[in-house]
Amino acid sequence: MSETANQKRDVDGDAAIGRHLEREYEAGWVTDIESDTLPPGLDEDVVRFISGKKNEPEWMLEWRLEAYRHWLTMDHPKWAHVHYPKIDFNAISYFSAPRSQEDRPKSLDEVDPELLRTYEKLGIPLHEQEMLAGVAVDAVFDSVSVATTFRSKLAESGVIFCSISEALQEYPELVRKYMGSVVPYRDNYFAALNSAVFSDGSFVYIPEGVRCPMELSTYFRINAENTGQFERTLIIAEEGSHVSYLEGCTAPQRDENQLHAAVVELVAHKDAKIKYSTVQNWYPGDSEGRGGIYNFVTKRGLCAGERSHISWTQVETGSAITWKYPSVILRGDDSVGEFYSVALARGRQQADTGTKMIHLGKNTRSTIISKGISAVRAENSYRGLVRISPTADGARNFTQCDSLLIGDQCGAHTFPYIESRNPTATVEHEATTSKVSDDQLFLCRQRGLDPEKAVSMIVNGFCKDVFRELPMEFAVEAGKLLEISLEGAVG
Amino acid sequence: MLKISNLHVTIAGEAILKGLDLEIAAGEVHAIMGPNGSGKSTLAAVLAGREGYEVTEGSIEYFGEDLAALEPEERAWRGVFLAFQYPVEIPGVTNLEFLRASVDALRAHRGEAATSAVDFMKLARATCKQVGLDTDFLKRGVNEGFSGGEKKRNELLQMLLLEPKLAVLDETDSGLDIDALGVVADGVNTLRSPERAIILITHYQRLLNHIVPDRVHVLSGGRIIRSGGKELALELEEKGYGWLTEAAA
Hints:
A: eleven-stranded mixed β-sheet, disordered N terminus, B: four-stranded antiparallel β-sheet
């Protein structure tokens, strides 16, 4: 069975709601750090340069080159409900590293103070995090990790948490075994590009039976001008292990569109659980949509073993364009996949996001809760695939897609695809579209809440099912981010 | 406290209130009755400042201030409260956080500190009991899945917590069973005080058996066509509105 639905709802114009939505991006500044940046352009020499710069093993370079050659044969995908000018891949620079990269800092004291100040502006002082939050941070500034904390504490329990570049030096066999095993470079256009030119990212390995003693967290930040970002993240949870990984980011204001094409691969073995949470707040562009980040991400998890469990939670408020479908392949019997998403698009942002749940094993279960919020002239689409293969006896899926509209010129779209090839499977899909109604707004104002507070409260209520899936410190941040994003959304 | 003079109100160009006069002093309870479509709910909405209701003529003076010039939240800060006829749902926002945000918003504008979570919880629980709502309702989304009667009790809960100076109850009694009616009446009677004024918009005399009004007004065709004491309500109960509206026409 295959089903598509397309809803576009123009809601009653309440100028009330349209007036406040113009707001400057809060994290818009550029840090002045000299970058070791490659000139724009892409060819095999660029791929070799990147690999050589990182002193990678030969097989890694070969893989990158295969990916590059394959990418050349592919076409730019056009199926998403987003619109943007053709990307000139030769106008992008594929390598940028802070100067201090050659001589890596051994501790935070050695980190470029300018970098640290940038993080502090973002409200994530590493010093405090080390002491207070109990969060290990592998901070990605441009393309190279510049600070890694809590390494020793993690090492005590056998957890590996480092950059991909480091992992390639220190654990090459692990990287070789798993990289591309969940997202092969042939998977899609942007995954192929990433595989060829990926810059850096995080590597996490949780040994058998280990419950990672802290939340692992990476803050991303795009900084050098006109530089594509190609993160690569790989998380492996061995049998019976648990890990919770947090990813969050903001970016400084830019005039040119910035391409971001990350790949994230998760592997959960038997009885392992991976929880991956994202708060994304990249620069969405100015009020005309100029200069925002293009965020084309491939995220996929493999529930390889029995009773394994992968959970994606995302709060997406930034980027000019978001193209992102964190997915789970449910191969192990009784494995569980979850996707909880809040996507907020305002101004001229375009978001096409959702998930894929591929049921292969018996009695596999998946849950999809998607909350899309559109304001002003934004376009927000949910695109989801639930596939039940003939082998997935007793598989179950529950999908709930809710859209909330703020203002009268935005759009919400739902594209749910359901393919069930097993008669014992149960698939449920619920979808709603609503708007922040004049009645709700009036009730709140009558009770003394100003319009911004009222909308923020209504939207946060709408997102509650997703926020409660976030780790506590992230839930607070997500609520705040939503509030900041909506400031000026209502009048 | 409240002085409405020659009030004309249109909705989308259509005249609904056509020269309404009403004066209410602190400490008084006024009942406004009248046939369907006479403009009762419009009056309530205009007092609270709902968008789309245009005052084309006349004035609303509240403590000497031009009420019509204020935003809805500004009126709330000054003590104007409307108990809605059809309370809307706000899914996912718990009653407790909504109530506390409201109370704190009002306190902030009186220059008072925000409530403490613990104190507010205690107060909210006690008030829940007073209006006959299980305290579980504090954890539920605002009006989410509430029955008609529960929604009305919830309005009452908000009113008691916000302690308004001018409370307007828009048909809070409609759709209530006798027990719920008693609870609403008790709530309103609790609020009665020399500093407060209450406007009861109702179709039925039965509410006025429980809340004895100082004045009863009949609204018809956008104007008040008859005012009297509590006995007027009894007369209406007996005779209907026909004899008045015909006389007014």
